[in-house]
Amino acid sequence: MTKSICDPITEIKGIGEETAANLAAMNIVTVGDLLEHFPYRYEDYRLRDLTEVKHEERVTVEGKVHSEPSLQFFGKKKSRLTIRLLVGRYLIKAVFFNQAYLKTTFSINDMITVSGKWDQHRQTITVSQYKSGSHQQMEEFESIYATKGKLTSKGIRRFIKEALKHYSQAIEENLPPYCLQTYQLLSRSEAFRSYHFPKNNEEVKQARRRFVYEEFLHFQLKMQALRKMEREHAAGSAKHYNLQKLKQFISTLPFPLTTAQKRTVNEICADLKAPFRMNRLLQGDVGSGKTVVSAIAIYASITAGYQGALMVPTEILAEQHAASFRSMLEPMGIKIALLTSSVKGKKRQEMLQGLQDGEIDCMIGTHALIQEDVSFQNLGLVITDEQHRFGVEQRRILKDKGLYPDTLFMTATPIPRTLAITAFGEMDVSIIDEMPAGRKPVETYWAKHEMLERVLQFMEKELRNGRQAYVICPLIEESDKLDVQNAIDVYEMLTTYYGSRYSVALMHGRLSSQDKDAAMQAFSANKTQILVATTVVEVGVNVPNATMMIIYDAERFGLAQLHQLRGRVGRGSDQSFCVLLANPKTAIGKERMRIMTETNDGFVLSERDLELRGPGDFFGKKQSGLPEFKVADMVHDYRALETARKDAIKFIHSESFWEQEDYAPLRNYLEKTGALSGNKLD
Ligand code: ADP
Ligand code: MG
């Protein structure tokens, strides 16, 4: 029978049912799975010159046994066996613990190789590995594997050796010659051999390089295939917007668009005009001016005869957006409606009717907008603010309703490029990488909790100048009572501290939406000067007179989130301040606070956040949805990721990819993952 790497692992000598079950617990079922169980590190057994070895370092030496072994016992089971070993010109000691049986193994003048920790003062190696004979008979690197249950790293290593012995002919190349040649990559079978049994560091590096590229290429092919499918099969419509009106609208704005805003508007308009469905991510740091871009897009779509919808994560934000859309678009004769949970009964009925009749041009609200009983006459564009809170699910709902509008996702979380092309690889991305002129960066300080008194005095100075302040308390789970209590305590403390001089309000997620609105409105109108809040104010809230923010326990937030929060101040023309109250315990915690005080650039922060916390934590637990790679690391291998992405785009759009034999393995891969039938989007 011909061997295939899809054979079950029980085909490998030494793997019985019990071992197979243990391996299965690690998702190793086939020979191929076993081969892809890569070592996570290597033990280095290369010979070293003792003069170069530092105290307590690991070392491997070969030498001649120079004395009869001497054996000492401590208690019943513990023993120490010492032999003198002549290594080159040096006479050293080799000590074996609890291996009394070795006493008869070594004779004078035997050549042996030992490995272990070097004690420079005692000129002694505490042996952890040994081998009779000279070093040549020993492998220089030992691969070390993750294990489970009764499995050992050595056992796994033996199985892999066995697998490579019998299956190396069965390992088929899955990359086209073009890639192997262009990047000088090892063949798949060579790469397995080198990764598991390398002769030197270079072999490990080359093997890794090959698998990193393979993983990224597969992943990007899947993304690009999905994207192509979307374009070709998603029923979109070409929207012939009125450029004249659009230009006129832009000229009514109180400010000129930044270059970055203009570029993004053009990118969006090109998508609107194209016959395929837009699927675009719009990234822009807090305050970069995404709202006006979204208003222009919606207006464009309306001039082409379609309705638009703007979805936001909270009702507070919906109200704010409705207000700013009204001030911009109503003068253009556009009818805007705001649908929130407080719109009820007859009013709601009328609104839904207006939407169905096409009398309402633009609907703003939370995600309830596209669910429930809402139907549009002719929905052409859906814009979602703070993309990471919605996503795939929302598109499914629209599709279920038979709606195929253009979609634009806006996010103020500057997603590092490597994550953006990983998590949103099937989307087009526009970036607003420029701030409107005249913004002053928020001055940020880090203070220990002990300094609270001074921080409050500082805050009072701002208040005395007629300014307002946010005091943010951490809230990890909206339902966490402890966290809410935290905010209440701070609220009470501040009420006592400022007495009748300033009025303090409290806002957290457990309040009813009326109470939340009331608190927000009072703050907006400067009826309260201090707003104690949990992270509900994180997104979008706009009160330009607020120039001061204190963030409690800042070390509990991610950098990206701190940056979002901080973006609530610095929205006017005056200097704003942000104080991070934190007593971080770890070096990384301190580093994070320091970074916050040093930069106002959201992209820099998010890159650092990614480095410090890793991709899994970047988006928070709820929506990581990031792919897991066996070998590749999105952060450190980003160059390979870019290369693989470019190649994937090129392949997907070339005829040869779909026809030539060279690319058959990649096509098969796509077939298997379902990317070609577009299943992934449902
Ligand atoms: P975000 O991208 O965080 O949603 P906004 O759209 O809320 O930012 O814009 C922040 C502020 O900047 C708003 O007050 C808006 O009116 C203003 N703004 C937007 N674009 C410009 C511009 N080109 N020039 C000056 N101010 C602008
Ligand atoms: Mg915004």
Automatic annotation (TrEMBL):
Alphabetized, the UniProt keywords read: ATP-binding, DNA damage, DNA recombination, DNA repair, DNA-binding, Helicase, Hydrolase, Isomerase, Nucleotide-binding
Family matches, as Pfam families: DEAD, Helicase_C, RecG_dom3_C, RecG_wedge
EC number per UniProt: 5.6.2.4
Gene Ontology MF terms = DNA helicase activity; hydrolase activity
Q: Which SUPFAM superfamilies match?
A: Nucleic acid-binding proteins (SSF50249), P-loop containing nucleoside triphosphate hydrolases (SSF52540)
Q: Which reaction does it catalyse?
A: Couples ATP hydrolysis with the unwinding of duplex DNA by translocating in the 3'-5' direction; ATP + H2O = ADP + phosphate + H(+)
Task: Enumerate the spans annotated as Helicase C-terminal domain.
Answer: 451-611
Q: Residues in domain Helicase ATP-binding?
A: 271-432
**Do you know which InterPro entries this protein is assigned to?**
ATP-dep_DNA_helicase_RecG (IPR004609), DEAD/DEAH_box_helicase_dom (IPR011545), Helicase_ATP-bd (IPR014001), Helicase_C-like (IPR001650), NA-bd_OB-fold (IPR012340), P-loop_NTPase (IPR027417), RecG/Mfd (IPR047112), RecG_dom3_C (IPR045562)
Entry annotated with the keyword Chloroplast: no
NCBIfam families cross-referenced by the UniProt entry? PRK10917.1-3, PRK10917.2-2, recG
What this chain does, per the record? Plays a critical role in recombination and DNA repair. Helps process Holliday junction intermediates to mature products by catalyzing branch migration. Has replication fork regression activity, unwinds stalled or blocked replication forks to make a HJ that can be resolved. Has a DNA unwinding activity characteristic of a DNA helicase with 3'-5' polarity.
The family note in this entry says: Belongs to the helicase family. RecG subfamily.
This chain's protein is named ATP-dependent DNA helicase RecG
The species this protein belongs to is Bacillus chungangensis
